[in-house]
Amino acid sequence: MSSLLETCKLLDQSSSALSTIAVAVAALSCEAARANLSAFDLSDSGDGSVAKDDIGVASDIKVLLNGSKLVASSNNGDGKVNINSFSKIPVFNGNVREAVKSLHSVIGVVTNWDEKFGGKVLHLGFELRNLGESSLERVRLNLGSVGFEGVKDIFEKDCLSEESLRNGIKLAVEAGLEKDYVKLVKEVDLILGIVWKIVAWEAVTAFFVLEGAEVLNEKSGGKGGEADGGNVKAERKRKKKVFLGKGTSVIVEVLKDRVMSKGEGLEKVVEELLSFLDPKSPEFDGFLKKVKEVLESNESRRIPKTPKGTRDFAKVQMAIRKKAFSVITKVFERHCATALDTPAFELKETLTGKYGEDSKLIYDLADQGGELCSLRYDLTVPFSRYVAMNGLTSFKRYHIDKVWRRDNPSKGRYREFYQCDFDIAGQYEKMGPDFEVVRILSEVLNGLNIGDYEVEEKGLSVETADKIGTFVKIRGPPLELLSKIMGGIEGSELLKHDASKEALGDLSVLFEALDKSRCIDKVVFDLSLARGLDYYTGVIFEAAFKGGVQVGSIGAGGRYDNLIGNFGTKQVPAVGMSLGIERVLTIMEEKAQNQTVRATETQVLVAVLGDKLSVAAELVSELWDVDIKAEYKVHKKMMKHIEYAIDSKIPWMIIVGERELNEGIVKLKNIETTNEEVIPRNKLVEELQQRLNP
User: Fold this and answer.
1) pLDDT tens across 31-58, in order?
2) Superfamily per CATH, domain 315-453+575-593
3) Any idea where the Anticodon-binding domain is (predicted)?
């Protein structure tokens, strides 16, 4: 056991070193292949959709390539991002990092070998295999770009192939199934050794693509003739100076220094590089330390990030969000609701006991002067507290604001997110508020134009559903299903009980109202589910998106007649709905990927040719004074103004240079048609208003 653990520790240490070196080597290959960097534009969206280690690898690659002139930027489509060997670097290298961490976390505490521990070793083996195959693809790609012969012949002597990796995994799996953990560790260690050789060869081939000809030329005294081990066709002219990344240039210099101090000849150079990159080499630790220093000291590495489960919203996302909130607010105000705002945090006792098992997701704040407070979990409980505190007996309100939950982030699920709530409190005609709230939810989803959806009415409690047996499995058109329930045997049994009879009667009133309101086609009656929140007392409903984006529920609500009274006042019945706006925005953002979204509403760009801010200030202020959405730019080059207007999708541009100033005119340019008109300076506002509001 002791010997086995020591072997595992060596496996852990070597794999950890590989996970660092492999990223640095992959960065060299990116430069050798002039790869596109868009595959590394990963960020933590806060919903757990991208693995943390994948993001870390992508960040390390960008640090190493910072300043490189060889790779294509993320907005340049000329690189080779479509090649899996590059686009999968974050995934394969990130998975190795995760597997190494997983194994490392148990090595120091394990007391007995078991299947779980063996599984972690085997998992590492699989991820090493994937990394090795990906690296091998880049080796072959680099070999195709090396500008002289001989390197490929030397590589083929090592007999490195995908087959050797797959055979190693096969033997490791067999050992795992037999619970022969000594053999399992041995086989994974052999796989690791093969991957180390492949990664070393990736470094060698990338180095030869980037610096090989120059190095061999220098080592041969600039003669450019033949060298030992192969026919080296040295370049006759000195290569144009290339600019590597700030990180990769350091690594290349380290490798270059190593081979320049040794013997001449191609085979000797390859031998020295492979020896230097061998983890058993006495000089390897120094190289590993240098790579870590590059990653950790680079100023680009110290990038701040948002907390888990949160995200920033860039200009395009904010444009989509603004549009969505505008549509939602318009619907809410059409139904004559009053806007309400409440504190971001409440007394802890206000929220306690209102959410059932979900109460564990409430964010508690540190004690500040004797009051225990928590961030609000939703907008419904604060609304109920407000109604009770102010002694209101009726209130129709809407509230759009942030709430916080200590949930596990996933696609469309965050720890900080907006809710859009509409609630009606007070005594009204039977099922009137219920009908209006469902109608509002339907209007909102139609207005947002996200695609097909349905609203599921959850009409019965768990206890009642259990009593009617087979009907809990039924869902369908509301009026049709309700008629079936009331006309069947189970229905006749239900009608013998006053409470059940009243519930079915209420649903009949609701469905008839929705039918007359022409929105029942989006409603489905479902008896199988009851919402988990403790405060619901009657009809509940849920909106589900039926399009291609899988986001789950996009809205929900129901009746809660006792919640307001729980605050020590008289009971005030209430019903409300909450739109899952973050999930709706996920759908809208997916749809917007193939559409043109303007981040601003700029109508006019005031383009001043030259450097006179005062000219721009005078013109743009005249436009602002009459409520024209305008911005200005001061630059000597006309194309800079035009490119900015096109990129920002600004429809009109006012052009003013020295000539225009001297002649008392301006040029008005239509960006779409490219037509230009000369306008008298004193008629600018009038002429522009006519074009903006024809």
Assistant:
1) 998 888 877 877 666 656 667 888 889 8
2) Bira Bifunctional Protein; Domain 2 (3.30.930.10)
3) 603-690
